[in-house]
Amino acid sequence: MLSSNLLSSTNVTFSKPSSRYPLNASLLDPNLVNRSQSPRITRCQSPALQIPSLSINHGFRFGSAVSQISESRSDFGRNLGHTCGFSSRFSSHKLGAAAGTPEEISPDGEIEASTKPNKNLKLAVVFGLWYFQNIVFNIFNKKVLNIFPYPWLLASFQLFCGAIWMLVIWSLKIQPCPKIDKSFIIALLGPALFHTIGHISACVSFSKVAVSFTHVIKSAEPVFTVVFSSFLGDSYPLNVWLSILPIVFGCSLAAITEVSFNFGGLWGAMISNVGFVLRNIYSKKSLQSFKEVNGLNLYGWITIISLLYLFPVAIFVEGSQWIAGYHKAIETIGQPSTFYLWVIVSGIFYHLYNQSSYEALDDISPLTFSVGNTMKRVVVIIASVLVFRNPVRPLNALGSAIAIFGTFLYSQATAKKPKVEGGEKKN
Prior knowledge:
Distance between the termini: 53 Å
Oligomer: single chain
């Protein structure tokens, strides 16, 4: 009788599914998710009974696995729409994370933050790995090029290491292998071509000038982003244009005061900027229909196609010099095993630092990622100067600092631009 009375006096209400922002099992844009989608408590007529009412969109259940994707106009990983990890992260906290800080419902029906210290620790580890792997790559890449100045072969080997890495984790099912078709491969041809140009040009620059100088010039990538995007119809506010002025000035000052200045190194870094910017823009336009493929898989396939682009050209450009260069390198270093180790480390860490950068992007905002990427260049420049003991003039250091500070200002100036675009899409 008591049970019958309780049920009859209880009005259970479930919230109506919302179709305004349909969710995809593999993609979830946090900009399109607000707190109205968080678990809500519906007060029942009976004071002794409260039943949680869940906002359900297209078959999603409370506790379902949801992955977060951050997007940005000028970053390749963000254009791809997912991060580089072995697999999508599945966690009971992700539904709350889609609306902000990971949350859980207390026994009193209140929403409280949780796992924030764990998340901060995780981000610290990911950033630490990203920076460490980038430093290791730059150091060993330069060590190899100092005794074996054939960047086309080394760049090809680094892509080869990435391709083997992806094939292994696909075959072992550590990372789900994407289902691809002819249209997918065709859509990747353009981004892979520009990725190839960006990678080989940077490697050529590293072979001719100091690592620090190459990274200072590569910090000018936002300048090319603004210029090329403007030609394609995008508009930028005045503060964005003003933010690139210190980048141009700082890079110019660093170039004219660089001890190891070489036009080949300068042009290599500049062409690398062009290649990566065009890759970002082109991938955004050509890969819109393949958002179900996550960022790691896209990066893996681009690496494989880039290898097919680059290696035949490498044979044509410098293939006749490889044997003689190899023997000279062995004579210089003395131990063949040391040379092999340097080459292998440069190849593996080239792929790993890219993977860690995508993983960092999974848990932070595009602005935080841009700031982190700017600081990464600072760390790499300092580490390379300490390791290789490159002479640095005061004006050269000043120019480098100004250029990197300009990159930071650019990331601040463009932080709100994606949000405006997101608002326009809602109308």
